[in-house]
């Protein structure tokens, strides 16, 4: 006789991004204890060397992503520092408060292509392009098209 095994529930629940957010991200880390209590880091910003609450952190002020998100390691650290402690982290909720702007390489490439197309079209219909802005050329092409139609 076979029975359906119930899906294994993870020991710790995580509400964290799949990957560490980019440099410049501001986040807070909210922990819950088995006892129902909780704790929070407050606002931390990711810099090139790690996460810190200070704009110019010293080495001892920095935290790593793994150190902030690995609940098993945090619980082991508590037991190592205070053997027999009943403090056990069970959940983590990472809240992103601010993120750096995304580098939109594809958008930049399309804009360059569009600008090239506008300049080429203007030159083909005899519009002077030297020193003209992209917007001026689009306006001139539009006006020329309206006159011819």
Mean pLDDT over the full residue set: 82
Proportion of helical residues = 25-40%
Radius of gyration, whole Å: 28 Å
- Strand and helix order: EEEEHHEHH
Count of DSSP E strands?
A: 5
> Total domains, how many?
2
Account of the 3D structure:
The protein has 149 residues and is α+β, with helices and mostly antiparallel strands. The protein folds into two domains: 13-98, no CATH class; 105-148, no CATH class. Helices cover 34% and strands 23% of the residues. The protein contains four helices and five strands; from the N terminus they run ββββααβαα. It has helices at 65-69, 71-81, 105-124, 134-148; strands at 13-15, 26-33, 38-47, 50-52, 89-98. The protein has a five-stranded mixed sheet. A hairpin with a 2-residue loop joins strand 3 and strand 4. Mean pLDDT is 82; it is low at 1-12.
Task: Write a brief caption for the model.
The protein has 149 residues and is α+β, with helices and mostly antiparallel strands. It has helices at 65-69, 71-81, 105-124, 134-148; strands spanning 13-15, 26-33, 38-47, 50-52, 89-98.
Descriptive tags:
five-stranded mixed β-sheet, single chain, 5 strands, 23% strand, rod-shaped, 149 residues, alpha+beta
SSE arrangement:
Blueprint (H helix, E strand, L loop, with lengths): L12 E3 L10 E8 L4 E10 L2 E3 L12 H5 L1 H11 L7 E10 L6 H20 L9 H15 L1
Parallel strand pairs: 1-5
Antiparallel strand pairs: 2-3, 2-5, 3-4
